[in-house]
Amino acid sequence: MNQIKLVLGNIGGTILLLVRSLKYIPTLPRQFPRFIEQCYFIGYTTLPIVTILSFFIGSVLALQSGYSMENFGAKQFIGTLVGLSMARELGPMMVSILLAGRVGSAITAELASMKVYQEVDALETMSIPPERMLVLPRLAAVLVMMPVLAIIANLCGWYGGAIVCQYTHFISVDSEAYFAALKHFMKPQDIVDGLLKAEVFGFAIVLVCCYTGLNTRGGPREIGASVTKAVVTSLILILVLDYFVTKILL
Prior knowledge:
Elements: H1 2-22, H2 32-44, H3 47-71, H4 78-116, H5 119-125, H6 130-167, H7 175-185, H8 188-214, H9 220-249
């Protein structure tokens, strides 16, 4: 019973944080330097690992599916499988998991440290709402950068699959046929659905991590506990939201 109350309290607190943050949207132009800083942190510094992992996810997907589809004489559809899988599911999912592990943990640690060492209290004393200064620029930045990261993840995954198909002897599907199959069955709506998923996942992750960091109590040990809690909650939330968003979009 206490656990249910705790979960419901956290959900309510997160929603209230969102409402209080959205109240300061008119002040966002004045937060432009912080917004650019967060875009750099969320987008640019995450880009190399997104590129590498996406390339190899697409490669492995093509390798595994090619091995199976070769037995059924359907290897010409590998491009379709890799394209749709990356666009609708694996691309946004993988980017979101990276965001939770890399960016979410850093956000939680920073805000938890500020809370524990009374920097957040100092902001409130100076009549500077932490939602305006610490939360809103991050929420705006993740909405801008998540579609960019998801598109790059899709492209890297597609090209990774194409290279594997062309240079693996038991598949031997040239890149022209691979991309022809991808284009034939891929609809713009499939890409849009994947980008929408990335937006929802990223927004939820940053919101949860900000809430967890700003509600940290205690000392340095609690900062580590808050980071762990935020990352685990974010990963669970990605899977739960993935089901509901997929069900809505189908």
